[in-house]
Amino acid sequence: MTSSPLSVLMALDSMDAGGTETHVLSLARALISSGQRVSLISSEGLMRPQFEEAGCSVFLYDFRAASSPAYADRLARLVDMMRRQKIDIVHVHQTPSGLLAARAAEQLAIPMVFTAHGTYYPQATIKSILASSKAVISVSPPVQKYIEQLGSTSAIVPNGIDLLAFYPTPQSSLRSDLGISEDAVVLVYASRLAWGKATACDTLLRAMKDLHRYGWDRLQLIVVGDGPKFEPLKKLASFIEEESGSKFIHMVGKQAQMREYYNAADIVVGTGRVALEAMACEKPVLATGNHGYFGWVEPDNYEQAWMHYFGDHGSNAPHSRYLYSNDIAQGCRRIDELRVLGKEGKRWIEREFQIGRVLEQTMNVYRVALGNSS
Questions:
Q1: In sequence order, what are the beta bridge partners of 89?
Q2: How many Å separate Cα 369 from the centre of its chain?
Q3: Closest Cα to residue 198, out of 223, 176, 216?
Q4: Where does the pLDDT of residue 172 fall: very low under 50, low under 70, confident under 90, or very high at 90 and above?
Q5: Rounded Cα gap, residues 361 and 352, in angstroms
């Protein structure tokens, strides 16, 4: 670690519940626990109480376009705050907030670190962010390759999982609150409902229709997440249930307390950080994401799952309701084996992704950005 505590400024577009936001929260908690100071600039969001409870100094900002008349005032306010907080290093994760933070950091000659969480950034914007960064972090090997194609180097530092926040617990009242019977087999799909993840959700809904048609009437699906495709997907879910004559899809929107939903599941369907958090809760994972379908995550394919980031940055096949329904049916036939997979998955998370290890790797990147790599 550095010889004296660092004052770190994190930048997020919002504090809504999502994978990037949860990662930043886990990292902020770890930094604060290790003696560093963390400030956060962000627009409002569901997770604000959690950031404040962790000990972050939260400053609300509007990240509208640079052409907005109020942009100069927002930039001046941010520069003033950074001086008052005696910021040593700026760590950005998204582009609108990252662009504003980059401008302020440049004015104050403060080094900036950028974490690339995917391959979905607008090219002109990410090139500007990369040009302003003293060091770059990629959350997976495919993202590192993407950054290399843009002409920059990066260190791979995975999403860190706080094992004090994500762990197995007895089932709460969540199932009964949703009207789900005790003998049901519950799938939880968690994601922002946009891009390829919305396609994955659409495919899963149609697979659930097929499974119920062929007699898998104990299956229930909880969809956690919000986004531009939430309403169309909710309408599709209602249509499927009306056609099927039964209630088995629960669209619950965005939620801040994801551990409760993971622990209500028998199977978690998801990608990226969702897969890691679910395995920390000892849940078997059927991986699918922006890029396509991966399948069951098992010890003999852990390395491949990681290289594909659980279907988010690479995949084994396109989204297919037939693949989904076939693999879910096979999983239901070996539910006891899946429980064993869940326990093995937790051990993998403990070895490779626990937040203490990620904190050490992140601090190494900070040292490089600060010009102190010794």
A1: 8
A2: 25
A3: 223
A4: confident
A5: 12
